[in-house]
Amino acid sequence: MKLTPSVLNLDFTETETKITHFINKYVSNSQAEGVVLGLSGGVDSATVAALCSKAVGSKNISALLLPEKETKKQKDINDAKTIAKQFNIETQTIDITQALESIYGTIPIYDKKNQICKGNIKARTRMIILYYYANKLNKIVCGGSDKSETLMGYFTKWGDGAADLSPIKDLYKTQVRKLAINLGIPKTIALKPSTPALWPNQTAEEELGIKYETLDLILYGLEKFMPTNEIANQLNIEQNIVKAIKKRLIHNEHKRQMPITPKLSLEP
């Protein structure tokens, strides 16, 4: 098998049909009145919003913009509103700064220098609000996690990784970008650098230490059980890079699973 970008090519029509059918059926089976989603101005949430509008109708979507003072960027807010306008989705903006500061001040051992712990609080606070709206409006939460970041564990457990359904979780980031463009999402949004927006100037590729174009092919090769040396040779990269990604994929398995429990009723 050749690890070239073509192995990740999509049949856009088939992909869109499968995902929209999945969303529609899940919402219907849940007897929900629609979906709640967060709009960040990034490609993942934009793609999910577009797919949901086609699946359940724009009027059945509640989209929330959840900025906070440390990472608030007007461009991201404008991009989120652009997507909402394009797909006729009503939005509500809720600044979560006050809620975050209240939480920070409540935790006895809070350390403002620990940006990872602080960032995870932000992600989980956003999800609390999304679920509040879902409960109140009898809707379900639609997540925006993609396959690349899910496999790498690049998300906050019970934060942005939490949702009732995740329509694009089986699409690599590069596939999501192409699908987004095919859905009519502006290239300035589809191709903009990804960020979880947990602290200022955070970018996904910088933290992951690799471009998505290369990462996605490595992950695809690992999923196909290709040896790490073969993946490295084909992509003309060091084998240690592939090994590190494989190690991270394995170590973050717990983030991709529901809590496990011992089966005490089993016979010894």
Keyphrases for this structure?
mainly alpha, 4 strands, 4-stranded parallel sheet, 268 residues, 12 helices, Rossmann fold, globular
Q: Main sheet, how many strands, which sense, barrel?
A: 4 strands, parallel
The level of helicity is 40-55%
How would you spell out the order of helices and strands? HEHEHEHHEHHHHHHH
Outline: globular
* Structural class determined from secondary elements: mainly alpha
Q: What is the CATH superfamily?
A: HUPs
SS strand fraction: 5-15%
Please describe the topology of this protein.
Elements: H1 12-29, E1 35-38, H2 43-56, E2 61-65, H3 74-86, E3 91-93, H4 97-106, H5 115-137, E4 140-141, H6 147-151, H7 173-182, H8 187-190, H9 204-208, H10 212-223, H11 228-235, H12 239-251
Parallel strand pairs: 1-2, 1-4, 2-3
Helix pairs in contact: 1-2, 2-7, 4-5, 10-11, 11-12
What does this molecule look like?
Helices cover 50% and strands 5% of the residues. It has helices spanning 12-29, 43-56, 74-86, 97-106, 115-137, 147-151, 173-182, 187-190, 204-208, 212-223, 228-235, 239-251, and strands spanning 35-38, 61-65, 91-93, 140-141. The longest helix is centred in the middle third of the chain and has 23 residues, at 115-137. The protein starts with 11 loop residues before the first helix and ends in a 17-residue tail after the last helix. The mean pLDDT is 96.
